[in-house]
Amino acid sequence: MLSKFLISKFVKNYQDTTNKKVRDDYGYLGGSVGIILNLVLFTTKLIIGIISNSIAITADAFNNLSDVASSVITILGFKLASKPADREHPFGHGRLEYISGLIVSFIVILVGFEFIKTSFDRIIHPSKVIFNIVPFILILASIGFKLWISGFNKIMGKAINSSALQASSTDALSDVVSSSCVAISLFLSIWIDFSIDGYIGILVSLIIIYAGYSLIKKTMNPLLGESPDIELVNGIRSKLLSFDHITGCHDLVIHNYGPGRCMGSIHAEVPCDMSIVKIHEIIDEAEKEISDEFSLYLVIHMDPINKTDKEVNASRLELLNILKSFSIIKSIHDFRIVGEGDHKNLIFDVVIDFDPKFSESDELKLQDDINVALKKSYPYYNAVMTIDRDYIGV
């Protein structure tokens, strides 16, 4: 309830998440709330750590301080990512949001390594941890706050599909685990004579480092170029096939230049005997509607397909029947016949499952095997094919 109240209070038109201004306001709100609450938690835990003489609590306090820096970077990331396109960056600066998330991840790891050293020093030079009910209750309260922050950032990150806010949510959840370990350390000090504070501190530090590593993996993927979302892929294909005279589509490629800044291209199969002007009008309409609906810039390439010629249709069916014996092949497209008389080329693209172990030599062997199988039925035909790997898996 509180999350929804804050969003509706501070984000104007919060339901219009495709609007860049609304999206930026979500990021600013998430960062601002993070700064305020993490400053409160840092101050509280630092005081508790000094009073109880606990290095684990102090480590957890400075972890919250790093979260303040993370929130500042998140705000800067949204601010810089919202800069308009320029000559050097024709697709805008949207990827800066991913970079801000990456910086946050490295800060988290740095804090973890620093407190491994501090915790190791406490193991070598142990000192008694003083249990006090008030600090213990405050630690439990901080766990509750972090759970809420994690949920708050998760709601906003999901609403605007922000990797930076989702990273902040994961970071806050890791703080819940680390603070829980600190609470256990403080509680066990009542019965345990030797100091386990340093050991718990190392455990907390390792949790922090792992959280940072997980965040790096998550924020690096869109920068390196990950596969597009399956729902987006299916949505684009379904919408494209809903237009008249478009009978098939393939070779969808999507480039991510930041949230809401995607560029895509796809091949659409159209009748070869239809007016070029007419089909061009349909393609233009499809590009505009799909781009608007899915918040991207889509370019559609036309592939003319002959579905009325008897020889073409018969050859396609025979080829499909031959290819059934090749389990790796998922489908074919761009089928056409080139040449005259008996000596003709069957030109087509073959789609196979993505397998990193399937090498170029394996591709050549597959092409040879298909040709051998084809010539048993059509000795004067030659298969000229291109191997397409299905990276999306749908």
**Main sheet: strand order:** 1-2-3
The rounded distance between the terminal residues' Cα atoms is 38 Å
Major pleated sheet: 3 strands, mixed
> H/E series, N to C?
HHHHHHHHEEHEHEEHE
Count of DSSP-assigned helices: 11
**Per CATH, which architecture of the largest domain?**
Up-down Bundle
Secondary structural class: alpha/beta
The tally of domains stands at 3
According to CATH, what is the topology of the largest domain? Alpha-lytic protease prodomain-like
Unreliable spans? none
Roughly what is the average pLDDT, rounded to an integer? 84
Residues in helices, as a percent range: 55-70%
- Estimate the global geometry from the Cα principal axes: elongated
Q: CATH first level of the largest domain: which class?
A: Mainly Alpha
Question: What proportion strand?
Answer: 15-25%
The count of strands amounts to: 6
InterPro entries: Cation_efflux, Cation_efflux_CTD, Cation_efflux_TM, CDF_Transporter
Domain Cation efflux protein transmembrane: 33-223
Protein name: Cation diffusion facilitator family transporter
Pfam families: Cation_efflux, ZT_dimer
Structure description:
- The chain has 394 residues and is of the alpha/beta class.
- It folds into 3 domains: 223 residues, Alpha-lytic protease prodomain-like (Up-down Bundle), CATH 1.20.1510.10; 76 residues, Cation efflux protein, cytoplasmic domain (Alpha-Beta Plaits); 81 residues, Cation efflux protein, cytoplasmic domain (Alpha-Beta Plaits).
- The protein is built from 11 helices and 6 strands.
- It has a 3-stranded mixed β-sheet with strand order 1-2-3, covered by helices on one side. Strands 4-5-6 form a 3-stranded mixed β-sheet, with helices on one face.
- Helix 3 runs parallel beside helix 7 and helix 4 runs antiparallel to helix 7.
- It is elongated and about 95 Å long.
- It starts with a helix and ends with a strand.
- The mean pLDDT is 84.
